[in-house]
Amino acid sequence: xxxxxxxxxxxxxxxxxxxxxxxxxxxxxxxxxxxxxxxxxxxxxxxxxxxxxxxxxxxxxxxxxxxxxxxxxxxxxxxxxxxxxxxxxxxxxxxxxxxxxxxxxxxxxxxxxxxxxxxxxxxxxxxxxxxxxxxxxxxxxxxxxxxxxxxxxxxxxxxxxxxxxxxxxxxxxxxxxxxxxxxxxxxxxxxxxxxxxxxxxxxxxxxxxxxxxxxxxxxxxxx
Length: 223
Known about the structure:
The chain is mainly alpha-helical. The chain has helices at 7-22, 26-31, 34-48, 59-76, 82-96, 101-118, 127-142, 149-163, 171-187, 191-194, 196-206, 211-221. It folds into two domains: 1-99, no CATH class; 101-223. The relative contact order is 0.08.
């Protein structure tokens, strides 16, 4: 009963989870509907398993239960329906916060792959694609410590690619992109070596950038 395979289940549980955190009347209302209460409790229990250090049953069972829901959420993070995507990302954020190592790795791999699809190297990047890519990046900031070096390098490369798109010149995007880049620079022991390729791309990009962008790139190199 805790499965989130259907988009309707994701939307329903996400909305209920939001209400439970903000609305003191939610608990009393849902207690009056036995079926809804059981569904909510089962879905909540399955989500809690994503960051449970110890359980009274085999680890393989935890992996199977959590992975099934994670795969469903990751699929619906690409849904064509904006509302479904929004609710899938909301729940995925809860799965990633304090999640077990395998949970964080599933999220990292899927979000990097989705960002790569949204930010093609040889095609124009739309505003909507950039917004979705930044939504994926939010999950990566939550699992940052679990990222491998190649994953961090891939993320930096995608951020630089996004930065060079025309749509990124909007202040809201630039602020987010540079914030993520600075975060990645700071957590690395030797960012100039780790992100050497990205450094060269930023250096070339800065030659054609405005004064404000050149300043941001300079500050990034001196993090």
